[in-house]
Amino acid sequence: MENFPFHDGSIYDMLDTRHTDTRPDVNHSLQMHSSLVRRLSQERELEGHQGCVNAISWNSKGSLLISGSDDTHINVWSYSSRKLLHSIETGHSANVFCTKFVPETSDELVVSGAGDAEVRLFNLSRFSGRGLDDNAITPSALYQCHTRRVKKLAVEVGNPHVVWSASEDGTLRQHDFRQGSSCPPAGSSHQECRNILLDLRCGAKRSLADPPKQTLSLKSCDISSTRPHLLLVGGSDAFARLYDRRMLPPLTSCQKRMSPPPCVNYFCPMHLSEHGRSSLHLTHVTFSPNGEEVLLSYSGEHVYLMDVNHAGGRAMRYTVGDASKIMSFTPTLNGLELQPPIHDFLQTNIRVRGEVATGLGKCRMLVEIARNSLEEGKHPYYGIEACNEVLEGHLSGIGPMLRHECLCIRAALLLKRKWKNDAQMAIRDCYNARRIDSSSFRAHLYMSEALEQLCKYKEALDFAIAAQCLDPSNSVMAEKVENIKKHIAAAETEKNNKANDGGARSEPRTGRVLSLSDIIYRSEANSDASQDGPRSEREDSDYDEEVEVDFHTSVPGDEGRDVEANFLHGSLNVRIHRRGDSARETVDANGSSGSPSSSSQNDRIPYQPETVIDMKQRYVGHCNVGTDIKQASFLGQRGDYIASGSDDGRWFIWEKQTGRLIKMLLGDEAVVNCVQCHPFDCVVATSGIDNTIKIWTPSASVPSIVSGGAAGPDTADVLEAMESNQRKLSRNREHSL
Question: Mind listing the pLDDT tens digit for each residue in 423-439?
Answer without folding.
Answer: 999 999 999 999 999 99
